[in-house]
Design a protein that fits this description.
By secondary structure, the protein is mainly alpha-helical. The protein has 22 helices and 6 strands.
Amino acid sequence: MSKPTGNLGARAPGGWTRRDATHLLWRAQFGASGAEIARATRDGLTKTLDRLLSPQTESGEFQATEPLLREAAYNSGGIGDLKAWWLHRMHYSANPLRERLTLLWHNHFATSNAKVRSVPAMAAQNDLMRRESLGNFRRLLHGMAKDVAMLIWLDSNANRKRQANENFAREVMELFSLGEGNYTEDDIKQAARAFTGWHVRDDAFWFNQLQHDTGDKTLFGNTRNLDGGDVVDLCLAHEACPRFLAYKLLRAFVLETPSAEMIGSLAERIRGHDFEMAPVMRELLASKLFFSDTARHAVIKSPVQLVLGAFRALGGRPNLQAAGQLMAQLGQDILEPPTVKGWEGGRLWITSATLLQRNNFVAALLNNKLGNIDEPAKQPKAGTDFYAELLLARDVPGGRARMEKYFTTASGSRNERLRGLMHLVMTLPEFQLT
């Protein structure tokens, strides 16, 4: 494999392996089953990416169950029910990359129901992020500027002509488009004036013309009667915007600390594709960088990836409410991120406490306390090699011998020994990485 560089050139054709397929699927969705890995291995990279990036027809069961779960959340008004609805989508949807990116944008535009307190508003925001997950970031950013949950989250009704509230203007630059150091405090003040009157009324976006500042504002060298849409466009045109997005995408899909060269190379592609995400993701997931040795096993699994990935790999049907509560205990409470900055993730996912909880999760999973997993004896190839490849996709120095020794010497039925083998594999430090 090539060494990591900033070059996003396509991976060399040929030499496609099961480990390559496993690497791609664990990054592009929430885990991968043995059947999915076998299919991707047969199909090759191009055909697999075509499937991940193109809309796939959902199963009949999904189409029947998903709207019922959403309706239950609306009827109860409980955010726990909406979390279960989204976890169902993440685990069962035939479009897993779309869900994977929806979670990325949820972290990017971190909004919590703890303040919004509206299941319909949170669901509508989630729909917007999903709709543009493989669509266009330009449309997504404009949509977020008028999104009801976001407007409530960042106190937009307090943004009035004679007393501009800077919350949204600050976050649209610092967290949503440019990053720190690429704007001034005066830029924030000018942008806040442009967003005055962007309010919520009757659970919908409302342009309150009486509270909108119609005077000239100056932003990034542009002076005129700017409104909020103009601010969004100027942020998108700023040279820092594609670099900021490139960093986020690289950190989520490739490695935790991308180099300036990597960021610059991907930023060029984002600008070149005018923020269209499908071609950007195709180039990223097919790149030499993505398949380089250093990029493999370089991302610490988030709680969502850890829990749903394990269920998917082992053929499981999670108890969605219990799974959501466990993810919250592990530090990732979906639809209720801790701050406007979302979850920083990376190495912060792992502490002495959460590592113990992650290992306890494995025991609960294998004992069907969080749902049900397939009986391991049903897998005709189940054994040391099978689970090491399925769950680790790598060689573990000394690990194979230890696994094989356990499997051949442990007491109990074959099924019991296979469960013990899975526990051994999933409590290795290497299982925390993807």
